[in-house]
Amino acid sequence: MATDPSEYDQSMPVVAAHLAKVERAVDRTRASHNGRAYAEVHQTLVAALQTEDTQRVMPQVVEEFARQISESPTNR
Q1: Which residues contact 37 (CB under 8 A, 6 or more apart)?
Q2: What torsion do the CA atoms of 46, 49, 54, 58 make, to the nearest 10 degrees?
Q3: Is the overall model pTM greater than 0.90, yes or no?
Q4: In the structure, what pLDDT confidence band is assigned to residue 76 with cuts at 50, 70 and 90?
Q5: pLDDT at residue 5, as a whole number
Q6: What contacts 66, CB < 8 A, 6 or more positions away?
């Protein structure tokens, strides 16, 4: 199945914009909830993703980000 290279070029700005939104949500959650309980981090991350209008992130990805943020040592 061959893919037209122009399809890639047309899709990349949309993909890049989506990833930037995910990154902002993760960064905000990490800044405010680093080292906190997983359930709290997960809930905050889901809310941050909704704020960024990025609800279409795979649940496993959200769970992994939440786990990493929760298990990070606190900077307090």
Answers
A1: 70
A2: -40
A3: no
A4: very low
A5: 77
A6: 29, 38, 41, 42, 45
